[in-house]
UniProtKB/TrEMBL annotation:
<dbReference type="GO" id="GO:0003700">
    <property type="term" value="F:DNA-binding transcription factor activity"/>
</dbReference>
<dbReference type="InterPro" id="IPR010982">
    <property type="entry name" value="Lambda_DNA-bd_dom_sf"/>
</dbReference>
<dbReference type="GO" id="GO:0000976">
    <property type="term" value="F:transcription cis-regulatory region binding"/>
</dbReference>
<keyword id="KW-0238">DNA-binding</keyword>
<dbReference type="InterPro" id="IPR000843">
    <property type="entry name" value="HTH_LacI"/>
</dbReference>
<keyword id="KW-0805">Transcription regulation</keyword>
<dbReference type="InterPro" id="IPR028082">
    <property type="entry name" value="Peripla_BP_I"/>
</dbReference>
<keyword id="KW-0804">Transcription</keyword>
<dbReference type="Pfam" id="PF00532">
    <property type="entry name" value="Peripla_BP_1"/>
</dbReference>
<protein>
    <submittedName>
        <fullName>LacI family transcriptional regulator</fullName>
    </submittedName>
</protein>
<dbReference type="Pfam" id="PF00356">
    <property type="entry name" value="LacI"/>
</dbReference>
<dbReference type="InterPro" id="IPR001761">
    <property type="entry name" value="Peripla_BP/Lac1_sug-bd_dom"/>
</dbReference>
<feature type="domain" description="HTH lacI-type">
    <location>
        <begin position="5"/>
        <end position="59"/>
    </location>
</feature>
Amino acid sequence: MYKPATIKDIALALKLSPSTVSRALRDEYEISAGTKKIVVDYAKSVNYKSNPNAVSLKNRRSYSIGIVVPELANSFFSQAIAGIESIAYEKGYHTIITQTHDSSERELINVDHLANRSVDGLLISMSSGTADYTFLQRLHQDGLPIVFFDRIIAEIDTFKVTSDNFNASYEATLSLIKSGCKKIALLANAPRLSITNERFAGYQKALLENDIPLRPDLIRNCLKGGSDDQEVEDAVNELLSVRDKPDAIFITSDRISISCIRALKKLKFDPQEIMVLGFSNSDVVDLLQPELSYIRQKAFEMGEIAVNMLLKLIESKYPITEFETRILGTELHSIKQQR
């Protein structure tokens, strides 16, 4: 079976590093003219240009950007994508959007598919199921521009943009405490995600500063991130069944917030007994019953910033070695509840 040559194949044959081959094919300034000619001539001889989306070996710009998100049905991600596209189309780039459903296997397949279609760069918000980032590190080392947004990782040195998750959760938990709550349950996403850990840390700090013990029996993680209503309903049932049950539930995920409200309504809980506060960018959050106090993230702005960062990497004629991580503020919308 015919297998197209890869950058690694060319590098091995010419005894060069994959990054040198990648830069030579992109006609970057730091690679000598002689090396570029050797690489390009060899690449042509092994039909490296077989990808129909490649414009040429000298200028492989496809003017397309790959976007990898956990779920399109999530209000936050749909708004972030709108922000990405508002800038991308203005700059002459098309977007190819994929969703992982928080599966590491699907994420690997999607990223591999986008890379093989010769996208100029990737915008990615990590799946909750991914623990091994080798496939992304390899692409990054091969020269593919990558920017992380919302769910970011420390393992790859590049541009990143996310929310001020720590302070958002800290202020939200304080607001529940000021409302008289002392037994605040936490309903969170998968524990390996950056956003989960940052939001847990803010929740924990608010409790400790107010001499409220951290109770493991009031903490639940939903590994499927709210896409499985039954998983969320089971978690809510467990929280409401503990001996000293909570007087508030703090939800640290957009999709889980909606699933939690649905579960509480199904369980016919008394909203006078338990206050509910969660992250949500839903356009109809103010219409939910029972009511939800919520934290709104700047999703559209995050998308705009992320794509501008990526375009900076794609279009720069010189290597970029200094990167920043942008932290965006959030908005807390509290609903007055009678206690």
